[in-house]
Specification:
The complex is a heterodimer of chains A (about 80) and B (about 270).
Chain A lengths: L2 H12 L26 H15 L5 H5 L4 H12 L1
Helix pairs in contact in A: 1-4
Chain B lengths: L21 H32 L3 E2 L2 H14 L4 E5 L6 H9 L2 H6 L6 E2 L3 H4 L3 H9 L11 H16 L4 E3 L19 H8 L4 E9 L14 E9 L7 H31 L1
Parallel strand pairs in B: 1-6, 2-4, 2-5, 3-4
Antiparallel strand pairs in B: 5-6
Helix pairs in contact in B: 8-9
The chains are: A mainly alpha (about 80), B alpha/beta (about 270).
Subcellular location (chain A): Cytoplasm
Pathway (chain A): Lipid metabolism; fatty acid biosynthesis
GO molecular function (chain A): acyl binding; acyl carrier activity
């Protein structure tokens, strides 16, 4: 799976949890999940668990703490997969 | 002691944290000692405001205080108090209901610590004072992992030393007036995962006359409060365990709410 495919899947998994729906139209790798998308910390846990299920990976608690942007998530998943 | 949207740190990491600096421990002990000394003054003040100024009443007050005392006596190890959240002063109301002033003075651990959001209560000196003396630890919503770790360390220290911490598992006041068991915080699970032997005192509280979401309960309000001690456990690992433990707590409070409304409906028939 290449990075673009991962990015698209990541965005798809985050979208249902985004409270700031306006920002969905201007998403980039740099978009901050908590601040820009209005996702709260509990839903970020749900998102990380969704990553685990979707990509069949395990995200350690410390690694999850480092996910601030969509790009961080993509990079982490890409590293785990490849 | 005024709570208002008490929050939990937002770090996802749930490692057991024991690296609280000595100076921070000392500060917490000083805060606790100051609070205990001055409780002689602000304790009665809270009770006066509760009973005289706002004319609040409580159903089965004596029985509730006895139940609280008995449950804490039975519980060995750390106890986390988890309550539904409807008004800005839920912590104060809960504090006044759960124990008498003499009882708090004799057993100061029974007055739970609170976790108000920093930006709501720490911008004015008088509120900072109230929070300091009311055993509050300010926390920041959407905190950095470092800030979250500091707050979690403090909470674990407090629980480990035998004091109680009161949190609102929903993470915010319920705008609908009923327990939000869909969009709630996982902070409770984070704490429980870090301190596995922690018991949870689930509390359901609401005004009987005009209960529901409000900044302040209406004058003359009568309160219902029910409590149940639980020990959430989970075989899951990592964040799944955090979520599972949080769900168990919120589900228990939701169940208590359903029991309250069932009783309300049947008593009206």
């Amino acid at each position: 799976m290449n990075e673009t495919e991962i990015y698209e899947k990541v965005v798809g998994l985050i979208k249902p949890y985004a409270k700031n729906t306006e920002s969905l139209s201007t998403l980039t790798q740099e978009s901050k999940i908590l601040e820009d998308l209005g996702v709260n910390s509990a839903r970020l846990v749900d998102i990380v668990l969704a990553f685990e299920d979707e990509f069949d990976i395990e995200v350690e608690d410390e690694a999850a703490d480092e996910i601030w942007t969509i790009g961080d998530a993509v990079k982490l998943i890409n590293t785990k997969l490849n | 002691m005024k709570s208002g949207q008490s929050v939990m740190p937002s770090s996802l990491s749930t490692q057991s944290l024991t690296s609280l600096p000595l100076s921070t421990k000392l500060n917490l002990e000083i805060q606790r000692a100051a609070s205990r000394c001055l409780f002689v003054f602000f304790g009665p003040l809270m009770h006066l405001l509760f009973h005289v100024k706002f004319k609040y009443q409580v159903d089965n007050l004596k029985e509730l205080r006895k139940q609280y005392k008995d449950l804490l006596k039975e519980a060995k190890g750390p106890v986390l108090v988890c309550t539904n959240h409807l008004t800005l002063i839920d912590s104060i109301i809960q504090g006044v209901i759960l124990s008498s002033i003499p009882n708090y003075l004799l057993h100061f651990r029974r007055l739970p610590w609170n976790l108000p959001e920093k930006k709501n209560f720490y911008h004015k000196l008088h509120w900072r004072m109230v929070c300091y003396l009311g055993k509050c630890i300010p926390v920041t919503r959407k905190a950095s992992p470092k800030q979250a770790k500091e707050s979690t360390d403090k909470m674990l220290y407090i629980l480990n030393r035998g004091d109680l911490i009161s949190i609102f598992p929903e993470g915010k006041r319920s705008r609908t007036g009923i327990v939000d068991d869909e969009d709630f915080s996982y902070g409770t699970g984070q704490l429980l995962k870090s301190l596995p032997n922690t018991k949870v005192l689930c509390i359901y509280m609401r005004g009987i006359k005009n209960g529901g979401f409000a900044n302040f309960p209406s004058k003359g309000e009568r309160f219902h409060l029910s409590m149940k001690m639980t020990t959430p456990t989970s075989e899951l690992k990592g964040l799944r365990k955090v979520r599972d433990l949080s769900i168990q707590v919120i589900s228990e409070i939701k169940k208590m709410e359903e029991e309250y409304f069932e009783h309300e409906v049947s008593s009206r028939k």
